[in-house]
Amino acid sequence: MDLTDVPVEQLMKEIERRLECQNKPEKRMILLGPPGSGKGTQSPIIKKDHCLCHLATGDMLRAAVAAKTPLGIKAKETMESGALVGDDLVVGIIEEAVKKPECKNGFILDGFPRTVPQAQMLDKMLAKKGQAIDKVLNFDVPDEVLVERVTGRWIHAGSGRSYHTKFAPPKVHGIDDLTGEPLMQRKDDNAETLKSRLAAFHAQTTPVINYYKDKTQHDFCPLDSVFRSFQAE
Ligand SMILES: Nc1ncnc2c1ncn2[C@@H]1O[C@H](COP(=O)(O)OP(=O)(O)O)[C@@H](O)[C@H]1O
Predict the structure, then answer these.
(1) Which CATH number goes with the domain that contains 52?
(2) Which residues form the Adenylate kinase active site lid domain (predicted)?
(3) Residues 158, 181 contacting (CB under 8 angstroms)
(4) Disulfide engineering: 136 pairs with which of 39, 101, 150, 212, CB 3.0-4.6 Å?
């Protein structure tokens, strides 16, 4: 690869990052929580601190929809309705994604697993490589709070960075602070679709929280060594 055109500051930053990451222990984390609970906001911070890759199934699916790949064409309608796409589909995406070099120190899963079968398939997939999940962080936010958070949310599609008209406005309305590119609102970030998304969360993802709590206790680990819950103020 020719690095002649890469600015020196960028190269130095990357070298510093790699040096810092050298001695970080491997970590495999899951962030659980309803839409708008803050998973996507916290992930980049955790990613930087622990030198992990950030795998958000929602972002990957939206990219597939935008690129009109066979996967995106399959997932589009389901996503717009606020329901969950098929387990095999998302497990396949994650299985491929964790192989990427930037995931070699571990990963943060954001928006996955969202059903008990997904959690079981993930455990199997990791066990084959002699790996396991180290931490599950649960973002516990009441439904009433989520409506305002989700309907005021604006996204920078390229990076997944999110803003909020009231709680975290960009410096210039409708524009990403870092790239100057336009922000967009997700098609499913409206009050009506949010109802279906929350229904799917309570019916299908709440059991995943219990899955990890039970599993931790079954493995004779102190519950808070793996599972941590955070409540919205
Ligand atoms: N693990 C998953 N299993 C099934 N469907 C998923 C999964 N992750 C994302 N999706 C689909 O993508 C949509 C958007 O997901 P995401 O960006 O994580 O949104 P949020 O957490 O804000 O609801 C979901 O409503 C669902 O249709």
Answers:
(1) 3.40.50.300
(2) 153-188
(3) yes
(4) 212
